Amino acid sequence: MKKVIVIYDDKKEKLISLAIDEDYIEDIEYIKNRPIPEWFPECKGRDGWDGFIKVILDTAGCSKEDLEFVFYGDKDSEEVFKECIQREGIVYKEEVKNPESDMKANKIVAKKAWDSGKNKEGLRQYKIIAKYENNKEFQYFLADYYYKEYLNQEEEKEEELLKESLKYYKIAARNQHVEAQYKLFEIYSNGEIIEKDNQEAIKWLKEAAKNEKVEAQEKLAQYYEKNKDDFNAKAWYEKMAMQGSILGAYKLGECYMLGAGITKNEVEAVQWYKRAAYGGHTIAQYKLGECYENGTGVAKNRYQELEWYRKSAEAGYVKAQYKMGVKYDKGLGVTQNYRVAINWYEKAMQQGSLEAQNNLAECYKYGNGCAKNPRRAFLYFKQIAEKGYAEAQNNLGECYQQGVGIEKDLAKAVEWYKKAAEQDNARAQDNLGRCYWFGIGVTKDDVLARKWIKKSAEQGYAEAQNDLGIYCRDESKFGRKLAFEWFEKAARQGHAEAQTNIGECYKEGLGVERNTQQAFYWFNEAAKKGVARARYYMGECYENGEGICKNFVKAEEYYRKAANQEYAEAQYRLGRCYELGQGVDNNKNMAAIWYEKAAKQGHIEAQYYLGKYYESRELWGSAIESYQKPAEQGDAEVQYRLGRCYEKNRQREKAIEWFKMAADNSQPSVDACLRLANHYCEDMDEFFWGRNLTLLGGSILIPVANTITIPVAVASAIASRKLSKSHFLESDKGKEMIKYYQKAARLGSNEAQEKLKSLGYSW
Prior knowledge:
Elements: E1 2-9, E2 14-20, E3 23-24, H1 29-32, H2 52-60, E4 67-72, H3 75-87, H4 99-102, H5 104-115, H6 119-133, H7 136-152, H8 155-174, H9 178-190, H10 198-210, H11 214-226, H12 230-242, H13 246-258, H14 266-278, H15 282-294, H16 302-314, H17 318-330, H18 338-350, H19 354-366, H20 374-385, H21 390-402, H22 410-421, H23 426-438, H24 446-458, H25 462-474, H26 480-491, H27 496-508, H28 516-528, H29 532-544, H30 552-563, H31 568-580, H32 588-600, H33 604-616, H34 620-632, H35 636-648, H36 652-663, H37 670-700, H38 709-730, H39 732-746, H40 750-759
Parallel strand pairs: 1-4
Antiparallel strand pairs: 1-2, 2-3
Helix pairs in contact: 5-6, 6-7, 7-8, 8-9, 9-10, 10-11, 11-12, 12-13, 13-14, 14-15, 15-16, 16-17, 17-18, 18-19, 19-20, 20-21, 21-22, 22-23, 23-24, 24-25, 25-26, 26-27, 27-28, 28-29, 29-30, 30-31, 31-32, 32-33, 33-34, 34-35, 35-36, 36-37, 37-38, 37-39, 39-40
């Protein structure tokens, strides 16, 4: 059987296409623009038309019985064609229609025309196929063709081309052509070639998503996500994931991790992250690294953590590159390697990571893994600080405050601290608070100081919590209890200085009930971190048996650790250990060495004991130098010792000056009172004997034969002495002498008491 396919346009009332099986018949000009009834009669004239049936039989090379006719057109035209066929004695079978098969000839013609550059004929054939076969691929082809032509044509044809394009896109879309549906979504959502219509856009997006176009499902899921419809967002991400989409797997993992549109399930989240990560999704790889790092939904695994971070970083994910930089910078899970850290920071910085640039600047600031370059660090900080990155703004403030890479400018430092603090950067808030606290680059203001430090502390910044504790402790109106509370918050975060401070609170009962065991615990925690002050306190605990059994050896050990860190109090106490033989062999020379170290740092007690050491060795000049500052502090005993050293060094006037200070002290030195009175007494004796020797000298010149002369001279001298003594006791010096003898006598000096008796005075 030969199938004759007739395609007729009823609107234009003309034949469009004629084919026998897959053979297209082109020479049909006679009937092309004529109504159907005129096809069948013969026309022997100029046209030479033998009639429709005769032409078909000749072309097909068969009889009428071997023909099957198929008509594509409207019903009325088909009825007319059917009547004409039947008059020719041919049976018309409606059930033989098969558009997909019947359009083969047109497809062949269309392809040939298109390939040979006859686009107009090819386009006509594609339209036939699109219409009568209702072929969505050809409908989409036409839509795409007209759309491209619309983009390339002159303005006067744009409207017509766009109209044709949209017509075919819609026809194809209604025939479930997924690309056409997605294209309509793009056209209506962009609003570039026609007025934006979100409702129409979402309608076609949903259709494309239902037809399993992954991009459409993604866009639809994002649409629901944006509109806070987590349930539908999760549903579409799940459809994507089930089709093997690694993006869908990652997003589904996010839904489970956050509990978005579904019950939170970290274990399930990790499984989807894994699926996406193994598929090469860089963010999923990074997230999986975080899970292994934090033990979220999976057991912590440092090896897996680094593996996934590395994969993500090597694939170019900027956050992973920054993370790898931090790992090597801080030595977290890897051997610390600043050069490798810098390499990762640079990669991340090239992708615009402000965090990476900030950390890279810190490497240049401190010379970690590179030559120290303060200026470069400053410029890096400034570059990203001006972009509003708070951490860099704080760092820039520190550069101005410390003069790193730029001249010191405290006002500028405050300016940048403020910018960062207003963005809730905890470090900057603490720095700004300290500026107001100590009047650095700004007028001192306790209210603003406390405000900013408190803001930082409330964010959990341990440094600020410790600072706030110190502030409250030192400002009585806030109370020591509040200070203790802030110290405790910081201490529990591992802040070493705060741990030392809270240890002091427990040791002294400041803001909390005294507890030497708790004090020892916190001192020990801080000491393990190398805090010199805490190590000193550990030594004190062991020396005095506070919170732990007495152990002079352990005390000496901790004093030595702190002393080697130049902690003056520990140097002094280590000196005492050597002097007293506690935990070490008695060694006064070693004691003096440590006293001297502490003394150079201004430690008063160390200066005093160092003075005693020099005094014992009759090194009067060194003793005077060591005693000077302790004496100026008002200790009568030291003042007396200083006076004695001056005396030994033959500096009588300075000696009397310090004896007088010690004697007039609110807690006077009995030795100083006695020594000062004795000095006055010596003055009296010198005065007496000076006058008497003069008289005696005159009497000796008298001849010996005159036996009366010498006794008379001596008697005269004695009488003169009594008179002079009386005059001296009534003088200022004499009164001072009696005053200090009386003061010494009242303080229990037997020598002073005897002296007063001999002079006829009471006390």
